[in-house]
Design brief:
The complex is a heterodimer of chains A (165) and B (109). With 165 residues, chain A is an all-alpha fold. Chain A has 6 helices and no strands. In chain B, helix 2 packs antiparallel against helix 3 and helix 3 packs antiparallel against helix 4. The chains are: A mainly alpha (165), B mainly alpha (109).
């Protein structure tokens, strides 16, 4: 139980570092650490399939894509222009109001039940695969079309226009 | 793996909601206070991930695997979104030579 609180503290700590780090490269590295703590959360909940997918897709693919984009656009010349302090304070107050609203709504609940794993093989690959390929077969196929269209769109957007270049 | 799952037994559901709410608000604050388009994009990723974690927690709480299948679809969508979004950022950089979002004020009146 104390493992959860320790990992939760690490998640919050690293995600604060993501938005406060000066250099975007440091932000990405802290984001990798944040996603690693999320993977540990998934393992603690015995959602093994999601832990592996989070590890491979998010930390392996998406964040490497971020790093490559950062490498392509060279930001070393001028550091990021800072927002004025007024805008920062306003943004912080806005986010804090959002958090307070959710926490206050949570207070209206009665005391919560603990999260107990009733079925130990709930998040295993075998169980999820059976559900995915029976009930959710159509959304699964549609998501492949989504990924294909995203790939075509990304290539189309990122290639140079021969008329302007 | 059995002992690992034993350790999480007894964490109240409210604490999961609280953790995910805090991380989601950190993402919101990040979108509001940063001007670098890539960092804003990373804050959006943070928000998506906090929602994924909460969906998984509810799925375990209810003993229903549908929530975890939904998280899988959210991850597929996030991958597509990142590919298109980063391509747009690269194109913006090529046209304006910066990723500062204050340059993009054409829609402002």
């Amino acid at each position: 139980m104390s493992t959860f609180y320790f990992i939760a503290f690490l998640s919050i700590f690293f995600s604060i570092l993501v938005i406060t780090a000066k250099s975007p490269v440091h932000s990405i590295l802290y984001l990798i650490l944040t996603f690693f703590t999320f993977t540990i959360h998934y393992i603690l909940m015995n959602a093994q399939f999601l832990a592996v997918v989070n590890f491979i897709v998010y930390m392996g693919a998406i964040l490497v894509l971020f790093l490559y984009t950062l490498m392509l656009i060279n930001l070393n010349k001028e550091s990021e222009p800072r927002k004025s302090n007024l805008v920062k304070i306003a943004g912080f107050i806005g986010g804090a109001c959002f958090l307070i609203t959710i926490v206050a709504a949570l207070k209206a609940f009665t005391v919560s039940q603990p999260v107990l794993l009733s079925n130990p093989n709930l998040g295993l690959v075998k169980n999820l695969g059976k559900i995915l390929f029976n009930e959710f077969l159509l959304p699964f196929e549609v998501s492949s079309v989504l990924l294909l269209s995203a790939m075509v769109g990304a290539v189309l957007l990122a290639t140079k226009d021969p008329k302007t270049a | 793996m059995e002992t690992l799952t034993k350790t999480m037994q007894g964490v109240p559901l409210n604490h999961y909601i609280l953790l995910c709410a805090i991380i989601f608000s950190i993402g919101v604050i990040g979108v509001l206070i940063r001007r670098n388009a890539i960092v804003i994009f990373m804050s959006v990723e943070l928000m998506l991930n906090s929602v994924n974690l909460l969906l998984t927690a509810f799925s375990v709480y209810r003993g229903d695997a549908t929530g975890q299948v939904f998280v899988f679809f959210v991850m597929a969508l996030a991958a597509a979104e990142v590919a298109v979004g980063l391509a747009i950022i690269v194109m913006i950089y090529r046209n304006t030579n910066s990723v500062d979002i204050n340059v993009l004020n054409r829609l402002k009146w």
